[in-house]
Amino acid sequence: MKYSLFLLLLLFSFLFHSQAQTIPYGQCGLQYTYDAAGNVLSRDYICNNTPPGGRMGIIANTNGATEKEQDQKIVVQQVEALYPNPTTGRFNVTFLQALDNAVIRIVDINGRTYRQFKASGTQIQCDISRLPAGMYSIEIIDKSTVISKKVIKQ
């Protein structure tokens, strides 16, 4: 009896297991934290910038090089956070690596450029308070890398 009850519970645990809430690589979204009773404890805006497997931009040589020589890191510019989003005007963008005289453009959904400037460092602040409410794209062009993120102005 105990054995069959155990098997039944094991079967239900496999059928009705809950999967952890995940945000896909390179995407941002809301992540909720719940207590044991199912009540929402917090709501956080999270950007997932960790590549699948946890290794960042690794390529390997296959020409017989030693294992130490095989892992060559490729530095790829990534946005760490864009907040607050949605915004009423000012928002911040932080990066994993510092920008070096990068071109920043604020573009509407029709492709019209509203503002363009150059920036350096690991954080920039943008002000779109004079623009009408809507969805905008912030384009960051740093060396050969182009990053585009959406911003909603309320």
From TrEMBL:
The keyword tRNA processing does not apply. Residues 1-22 form the signal peptide. Keywords: Signal. It comes from the Bacteria. It holds the Pfam family Por_Secre_tail. Residues 82-152 form the Secretion system C-terminal sorting domain. InterPro entries: Secre_tail. This is T9SS type A sorting domain-containing protein. The lineage of its organism: Bacteria, Pseudomonadati, Bacteroidota, Chitinophagia, Chitinophagales.
